[in-house]
Amino acid sequence: MKKVLITLQDLFDLPTARIYSPELFNSVRNVSIDTRTIKKNSLYVAIKGSKFDGHSFVNNAYKKGASAVIINEKMLSKFDNLKLPIITVKDTTKALGQLASLWRNKLNAKIIGITGSNGKTSTKEITSLLLKEKYKVVSTASNNNNHIGVPLTLFSANEKTEVVVLELGTNHFGEIPYTAAIAQPDFSLITNIGYSHIEFLKTPAGVKKEKQALFDETITRGGVVIINSDDKLLKPLTTKYPKSITYGFSAKNTVSGKVNGYTVDGRTIIEVKLKKEKICVELPLFGMINAQNILASIAIAYSLGLSKNDILNGICKLKPVKQRLNVKQLKNTILIDDTYNANPASMNAAFELMSKINLYKRKVAILGDMFELGAKSIQMHEGLATGIKKNGISILFTVGKMMKNLSDFLQHSEIIAQHFSNRNKLIKFLEECNLSNSVVLVKGSRGMKMEEFLQVIENREIN
Hints:
The protein is of the alpha/beta class. It has 16 helices and 20 strands.
């Protein structure tokens, strides 16, 4: 099997590149932007980020065994003493993406691109696990889904890789078109369209336009798009993309799901139809949102030829993604850790899960602000009241400037709503509050660091 390598010709093919000491260059199979993990005979790319400038570590990369470096053309004079090939470019970040695109075209692997407003990380993890039943899989680590993370994930694949599962994220226009062009997917999926990053993408239609660039890139390559027919903004795309696979719970699809009930602890029991085959399974993950994520992953797995037994074996191995609807049974409390991030759709998905857990009647929500909602932020925070009432949540504790609007909105309702003006007051309260015989949700946007409040509750149980 021929090794996948970065060659001297690849470097000459980089736009704006000039190569110094090309006669010293030997083909490499590792590309790195981090000298802490760099391997010998690697190509080091000096990226300037918001906190660090990779050019400050070029000498360190050389000492650790890098066999060549890519730097900004303006920095050349600082490194003319290095006895190794130096490649200068106008923009090292763009060069990283261009190099990753060249690398992608050397791979024999199928490339799967996943994006969406909610559930993309969970769907990426589920898809990867299912596909490992049949293939050698590389996938995005954590949520490294941006203009740096997508190239680095591609570089982590090699000649033995059969499938690469890429997560593509965005919060500004133009980011998905950029990373999708690098990835050149054979299959792509948009989980859903919601209000995440609405501050910058303006409207759900704006979110759709940005995300849809992934489908367009896939079709340009002759690939297959996988459409969530339960999403009202995505369903019409079936006419735009005839070469598509559909999935959903609400209508007849290529992959059709049906909810057959819930266990007492809130797990979803689903039935999935694949042509003439049927899968009935109690899901190891919680919440309807995860049922949708699993159905999406089954649609991808089905597209890549997995059998019914492969899919069932993969589902049995599923475990919750950290900080995403992770349900923990404590002594006398069920704690839902959904602290990774938040937007209106994921909030309501978490509320719905609380209503399905019937071990305890008392439902308590501890909520922090949702970010990047722009001019509609107050309205969307107050709008959570509908889901709170609908799903039987009787006690609400809030923290954050925006969440005060929700707490105030509920003051004259039957729900006990208490707002905390700062984090320390909420922490002190939770250290003493009786949460026994309750289902407790902790959730907020990443910047709210809601996991700190979760830890307070867990520590009480331990001690």
